[in-house]
Automatic annotation (TrEMBL):
Source organism: Patagioenas fasciata monilis
Gene3D superfamilies: 3.30.300.30, N-terminal domain of ligase-like (3.40.50.12780)
Source taxon at top rank: Eukaryota
Name the UniProt record assigns to this protein: AMP-dependent synthetase/ligase domain-containing protein
UniProt-listed InterPro entries: AMP-bd_C_sf, ANL_N_sf
Length: 191
């Protein structure tokens, strides 16, 4: 399962204990085209086993942000490029803001959102997954559900993840410390 944090997907893993089951969302709609591009840098096409941002070309897609030419070009006029940097075609794609991959049988899989993506030490983490981990660890008596924030900060040229949770008034400092210790032990940020 660590492959996801490196942006890589493996299909049909033999080790069922470390496998994560992901449900597809179906095929690309008829008449539409889709590609997966690397989330960082130029819109370079991902390899078959890589997770990237889903880009769609369809008559049903948006065309522009009114009055925002720069943002429009970056979002609505994406021309995918090869590993060498040359354009793959001349059809513009629209960035969806979703992370995913194309699996066997051309099925589309969505595994997260771009706006919740945190990159730390070369590994990608989804903020929603970190919040879910915190809530899964006996949080009900220590912190409020829905009052947890996750973000990253730069510390000495490296990114660090910060989790801020509102402590319940009836929870002691010791309860909170024990909760934090358990969250760190099961956190996807380890190893």
């Amino acid at each position: 399962m660590n492959g996801l944090s490196f942006g890589v997907i493996r299909v049909n893993t033999e080790d069922k204990n470390s496998a994560l089951t992901v449900q597809d969302v179906g095929h690309v709609m008829p008449g539409g085209m889709m590609c997966i591009v690397k989330p960082d840098g130029p819109p370079q096409l991902c390899k078959t086993d890589e997770i990237g941002e889903i880009c769609v070309s369809s008559r049903a897609g948006g065309m522009m942000y009114y009055g925002l030419a720069g943002v429009t070009k970056n979002t609505f006029e994406v021309i995918p490029v090869s590993a060498a940097g040359s354009p793959v075609g001349d059809v513009p794609f629209v960035r969806s803001g979703l992370l995913g991959f194309v699996g066997p049988g051309s099925l589309v899989f969505v595994v997260g959102k771009m706006d919740g993506l945190l990159t730390v030490s070369g590994r990608r983490h989804n903020a929603d997954d970190i919040v879910a981990t915190g809530l899964a660890v006996e949080s009900i008596k220590t912190v409020y559900r829905g009052r947890i924030a996750v973000f990253s900060v730069s510390v000495f040229y490296d990114e660090r993840i910060v989790v801020v949770a509102e402590q319940r008034p009836d929870a002691s400092e010791e309860d909170s410390f024990q909760w934090m210790s358990r969250v760190l032990q099961v956190s996807p940020l380890r190893g």
